[in-house]
Amino acid sequence: MTTYNIPQKGWRRIYALFVDAWMVLHEKTHPQHTSLYYNRLQLMVMGIYPNKEQRRSPLRHLWHRIVLLQTNLFLVTLLFALPESANNIVDFGQNILWIVSCFYLSVKWHYLYFRADDVDEIINDLDECHCQAVSGATAPIIRREQRRFFLIESSLTLGWHVSNTLFIVLTLSQPLWTDQKLPFIAAYPFEWHDPEKHPIAHAVIYIWQSYFVAYNMACILYCDVLSAHLFGQLAINLKILCIELDTFARLHQGDEEKFRSQLGDLIKLHQRAIRNVNRVNEVFYAPLTMQMLTEFLLISLSAFETLASRQDLQVASRFIIFMILTFFHCAYYCYFGDMVTEYSKQVAQSAYGAYEWSPNSRIIRRDLLFMICRAQQPLSLTPSPFPPFNWITFMSEAKQQPQQQQQQQQQQQQ
């Protein structure tokens, strides 16, 4: 069976995830690391992950500052263009969409700049759980589930790469099939954005905007899949706990000492999972809160702009694509977030099943009862005071959009 040596330096780290996924799919190997580990490598290749190791390099540290500066400058140019597009509701709404998206980027990059080391701790702990040796009757089941989750995450990441590329192409080609002179409506000093007055400056700005959207869309892709895959790894650890609970009690029901030892290890695993969920809620509070707000605004604005420009199919199609991508982005997080909640509930059922097979020991049954009581409080990824990331939240958002569209149509008819 062939193995793949993961490069620790150089640009080849950016596709290490897909090479490992190919080996898992065709060679039936076990993933060497979690998808989180590879997503972090991808961010390092892009120069947007300023942890302690990266900050030791003066050039890397300078590049992180440049990324923050160019994002803020780009946001300022969009803000200055708002008055120019105020007379056109479609252009004005499009500008608001880009401003909200750029502000979201700015928040993400500032967050990584200050909290990359905390994110490292979570990734390393989850990767350690993934790489731990397993044995016994549950080993084949656990390895199969880990491979399945890894392939799901890798396939979804590949799909996001394709969608991201299509979005970049559509955005950069707008001046070719619309009246826009630049991919983004922006205002610069001395009217540098006007191709008739300053053709060279206009060309430079066009190149800069093209670079900005290509680079930042790639970076935000890796950053967001890392956040979503954190949810997935929390979910698989809870599922592994359920598998262990469903199996160990029957195997060791006649040996009280082994039962108590194995139960102690599973209780520690449960506590570790709870600690990791709480840690993610703490460390990712700011970006998750910003994401919840941003997705609500982007979906609402794109739905409004679609209705406002419905007579122009080319313009309306841009907003429809944007709205669909935002919906899928929200569903991506809610899909994995819902897994965390459901598997945390399932822990209580598995612990109750272990209770029925437990030896007649007061200490063992007390520990199982404590575990059942704790597991009856579902875990969730929640940017308080907003609702948690799960299917209930997603369906509430999906149902709200048709109601908003009907209200907007009624207002326009009046």
From TrEMBL:
Question: Does the record carry NAD as a key word?
Answer: no
Membrane topology according to the record: Multi-pass membrane protein
Any GO BP annotation: signal transduction
Which InterPro entries does the record associate with it? 7tm6_olfct_rcpt
Give the UniProt keywords, A-Z.
Answer: Cell membrane, Membrane, Olfaction, Receptor, Sensory transduction, Transducer, Transmembrane, Transmembrane helix
List membrane-spanning regions.
62-83, 95-114, 149-172, 200-223, 283-304, 316-336
Q: Report which superkingdom the organism of origin falls in.
A: Eukaryota
Q: Which compartments is it annotated to reside in?
A: Cell membrane
Amino-acid biosynthesis among the record's keywords? Answer: no
Molecular function per GO: odorant binding; olfactory receptor activity
A single Gene Ontology CC annotation of this entry is: plasma membrane
**Which PANTHER family does the UniProt entry name for this protein?**
ODORANT RECEPTOR, ODORANT RECEPTOR 19A-RELATED
**Similarity comment: family membership:** Belongs to the insect chemoreceptor superfamily. Heteromeric odorant receptor channel (TC 1.A.69) family.
* Protein name, as recorded: Odorant receptor
Question: What organism is recorded for this protein?
Answer: Drosophila navojoa
